[in-house]
């Protein structure tokens, strides 16, 4: 008799989705473990291709952060000044928001660099060329930036890290979720648990690239849901398992995706901040970074 691996009441569709998610997680874990192998290989800068001399690094960068990028590219590729956590406008003082964002208090977005300059150029290599070494470098710099802001007293560490989920159709096409890989790296570096099952994408939306602000908002409207259907507290629902979470994505442009998730979580009184590898600022801000 053939051994049954699933319950009799599970449909073929459910079995197929479960198998896909299992295979995808295994593939993502293989990508994660391959980072350790790369660290043992000759180290060349991902941007300028020069051999990295670790003796030349300043002591401000921890030793574990020295893989994959040279000192020159690292320093020039990061934000050169403090930026508003709302809109990424350069700031002259160490504070959370610029004057304009102090009024609206948007979701805090933490990123180590601009998508349009320096290290930000590595983001597209991760998504479209599967350059996982670049993901390792940027995740390390994001973790370092987060710890800086915690030390400055500008943010608090969350209880859990949640990667922006992909729809199962997109996951099948791409083979991996870069947000999951980033979240896994941050979970290890910052010693914060990751929950990749609390939120799922219930709509197979169009890719956001190339859409304007309104199109992005319409595209992501109600695209996410909680795995466990909790009713909001004001309608008699139960207390959520978390009070403070960080949503992780590769890049934040208009903030539509993370804001849509934040709206969902706010219904359950969950505070949210967004962590990303790079921030795509408005055109008028790019020259001042």
TrEMBL record:
InterPro entries given in the database record: ComF/GntX_DNA_util-trans, PRTase-like, PRTase_dom
Similarity section: Belongs to the ComF/GntX family.
Name this polypeptide is given: ComF family protein
